[in-house]
Write a structure and sequence with these properties.
Length: 219
Amino acid sequence: MNILIMGGPGAGKGTMSTRIVKKYHVNHISTGDIFRSEIGMETELGLAAKDYIEKGLLVPDEITNGMVKNYLEHLSDKKSGFLLDGYPRTLDQAVAFDKLSGGTMMAIDIVIAMEIPFEALAERVTGRRLCKDCGAIYHIKSQPSRQEGICDQCGGTLYQRKDDTVESLNVRLDEYTKQTQPVLDFYEAKGLVKHINANQPIEKVWADVASVLNGYSFG
Ligand code: AP5
Ligand code: MG
């Protein structure tokens, strides 16, 4: 079972992905996480992506498509499929991925669309904190760590993403409207999209996501 989770910046894709991966044993492929890890390691790919990401702009399609293809080809543990988080997010990427995966085990079976008004996103993004070591996601209000600045799971230090500013969020929202909304229409036309109200407490959003996924078989 291959899942695509979509939604604006801060909609809760990463938060739901953590739970989906744990419950359904799928590989989590977050292009944002991969880019941030490459930036941290100062690789060629990271250096190519850094400026775009910090400004809130999308990384060019040829870089992103190549990275995802390579990543999928080298997955050592195929598990019960994968969860794409943040890819495809342009029509070009959706078409490229369709060509690569159509009629194969890599085809997308379901698209979870996390719906939330843009006005709700600034608080989510500016209050987000992440663990430097394990990537766990926190929020200073809705999901605080027990000890400020320290990860509950591994004791790592929490940090703020460089693109989690209001200025960068506005650019990301603009990119989302112009480039990502058409991707949702692309999958809508294939009848794959399930809409989730992401503007609810985390446990409620999770109950809705799980109730959709429980209707599918993972194996
Ligand atoms: P990416 O890392 O994918 O960022 P994004 O799409 O902007 O989404 P976020 O990760 O910011 O939000 P999220 O939906 O995961 O929310 P989260 O669960 O953390 O991409 C970053 C950049 O990389 C892009 O801008 C681009 O430059 C580049 N990139 C990536 N993919 C690309 C691609 N395919 N093509 C080109 N470029 C690409 O939650 C947010 C906060 O809210 C957290 O603090 C959380 O605790 C809290 N929260 C979550 N759910 C709830 C809830 N229900 N109630 C209250 N609080 C909640
Ligand atoms: Mg995320």
